[in-house]
Amino acid sequence: MTKKLDFPKLLERVLKFLSIRPRSRQEIINYLKKKIPQDEALREKVLKKAESLDLIDDRGFAIWWVEQRMTFRPKGKKALFFELRQKGLEKDLIEEILNEKINEMVLIKPLAWKKWLSLKKLPKEVAQQKLVGFLSRRGFSWETIKKVLDEIDQKQ
Measuring CA to CA, how many Å separate 47 from each of 31, 118, 144? Predict the structure, then answer.
């Protein structure tokens, strides 16, 4: 027997969902679809109420997401772009935020040097290959990777 959710209970659940961390509009829509797949009108009503309370802000969410990534798990623009697209954000908004907030060289240097130190015992070509793979999996562009490789090469 499933319990029917009414507007106040559903709004309360959405507020709790939003209290954990900021969410994109699409994440909230997906959450509501899971909770009440059959009632589009109620989903819309809850969504409109959340919007009227300024709880849905894709731009603010994107900025928060990028800042979190820069602080705790740095990634390149490419990886961040795909993460934010998965969260349902518009391509133009993502590109604007990434160009505004991300300097790949600042993010890549500490990662590259730390990884390079762990690869020092390997032959140079192997170490470089592993470093390139590591940095490209983190979403950094080849141009940025090449610059940091050249910098590491000069200091060796």
Answer: 11, 49, 41
